[in-house]
Every structure is written in C-alpha cells, then in structure tokens.
Design brief:
Elements (H helix, E strand, L loop, with lengths): L5 H7 L3 H16 L1 H4 L3 H7 L3 H14 L3 H33 L9 H9 L3 H11 L2 H5 L2 H6 L3 H8 L8 H20 L1 H7 L2 H14 L5 H31 L21 H8 L7 H36 L7
Helix pairs in contact: 2-14, 5-12, 5-13, 5-14, 6-7, 6-11, 6-15, 7-11, 7-17, 8-14, 12-13, 15-17, 16-17
Keywords: Cell membrane, Membrane, Sugar transport, Symport, Transmembrane, Transmembrane helix, Transport
Family: Belongs to the KdgT transporter family.
Pfam families: KdgT
Length: 324
Amino acid sequence: MGRVPIVDTLQRVPGGMMLIPLLLGSVVRTFWPGFLGLGSFTSALFRDGALPLIALLILATGAQINVRQSGRVLAKTGVVLMAKTVVPALLVIAYGYAFGREGILGVSLLAAMVAFVNSNGGLWLALATQYGDEEDRGAYIASALNDGPFFTLVFLGLSGLGAIPLVYIVAAVLPFVIGFVLGNLDAKFADMMKPASAITVPFFAFALGAGIDLRSLAVGGVTGIWLGLLVALITGALTYGAYRWLLGERSAVGFAAGTTAGNSVATPAIVAQADASFAPFVAVATAQVAAAVLVTAIVTPLITHYLHRRLQRGAAGRPAGARA
C-alpha cells in the first residue's frame, strides 16, 4: 500500500501541526464556507470545535504537572504575563500619550492595545509541546488570563469600564486546575491524558482558522501586517529575554508568546461598547487585528524554530559542563 507522509510533513514545518491546519481552515472559510455550515458533526468539529478541544488540551496539560513542578509553572506564568501583557501594555499606553487615540501610520491606540496585550494560547501550547516541556505548557495559564478583552479594557480605561466579572477568569483557568488535581490524585489519569496534545492540536487549529477570512488581510492592509510583525518581534523578544534573564533558561519557547489571539478580533467592538468614544476606530482596528492574528501565526513559529535550532547548535558547541 502507498504511504502519504502527512504527519512527517507537518512536523518538518516549524509549528506545522498548528500552522498548516490553521491556514487550511482559513482557506476553507474564505473560499468554501458552505462546508463549515453543513451541520452535525462536520460543523461541530471543523467550525465550532476549537474551544472544547483547547479546553481538553488545557486539562490534559494540567494533569502532567505534579505538585513539585507547580511552583515553576507559576513562575513561568508570571514571567510570560509580565513580558507579554504588562510591559507591552505600558508601551502602548506611552504610544497613546505621545500620539493620541489616532496613533500614527494608521495604527490607532485601540488596534495597538488589542494586538499587543493578548496571546494565542493554542499556538503557545502547540509550540511548547514541540520545543518546551510540561512546565512550559502549564504556563498557558498566562494566555488564559490575557485572552479576551479584560486587560485591554483595564489598561485602556482605568475607569471601571474595563472590569470583567471574576467568573470569566475562573472559567478560563478551571480546566487546568481540574486536570492538575486529577493528575496528582491518580498517576494513571495523567498517563491517559498524555497523548491529548498530539491529537487535539491540528483539529483545534483548523477550527481557529475557520474563524478567519483571508480577505481581512486585504482590508487591514499593510498597516495590519506591520502591526503583526511588531507584535511578534517585540513581545516575542521580551518574553524570550525574560525566560533567559528572569528564569535562567535558554529556551526558544519564550518567543512563542509573540502572537495575537484569534478571538481578539472581537475585542475592538467590545471596547466600543464599554466606551463609545472608541467607536470610530473599530472597523479598521478589527481588520488590523485580524491581519495581526494571521501574521503572528506565521512569523512566530518560524522565529521560534530558528531560535531553537540556533540554541541547539550553541549547546552542541559548548564543552561539557560549560555554563548555559
């Protein structure tokens, strides 16, 4: 029988298990949207399956973290949250003070804040699975916290309009906590959940891509592409440096935080509901953020892979016992 090396091909592409299905989902959404609307199991898996599958992966990731590792996971979570969300938000606030809400070069304060302060948790999990370890996957908690409009509203408003009910954050973190508890109560449960990452990543990636119309790149134009490149380079570098200098790890996985989450495309409209003065910026900001989602999903895995190979070559060239 003939053999088509589908899995081997995906694994040869940096972040390919996530990136290629995501792009395929975007292509289907753009040119054959009727397929996604067939209904029943087809729509449930290929259009609506992202959140349930990511939730399952989060639970499975929690199950792999034992009590002795949990402190390190929290440390990595804090470092990622600081480097990917807090510091970029302060930079964007300075941008707003300097250039106003309109910003410069067509990038408004709203678009910049939305694109910079959140991260693509699914892509982090995929890259952490390929280039990191269980502790890195556990640092997904940072994406669970910064995903959605919470930090965008808080940093933009500082007026109470950005408040989000605590239950929103609890609901995002709870699957990880449940997996953590079950995995520590029963080692067999943890073993049972180990294959979840290899199974779920390509399918939730396709479903995430099915929510992105490739034509949004044309609407967002060059400004959206440049915004995505800046998000990848600045926040990826910040988190990569934080891994090195605050955690003492030479790991390429830190750069995997340099992304914009797919569901952040809805955040500009949510901000405008809280503060109507942002309404004039919503249409362009939404298109720019959508472009940033696609650009970071392509650029960040490539740079992460490059850094990983470079670190591997550096480690191979160092004498045994030399300090990293």
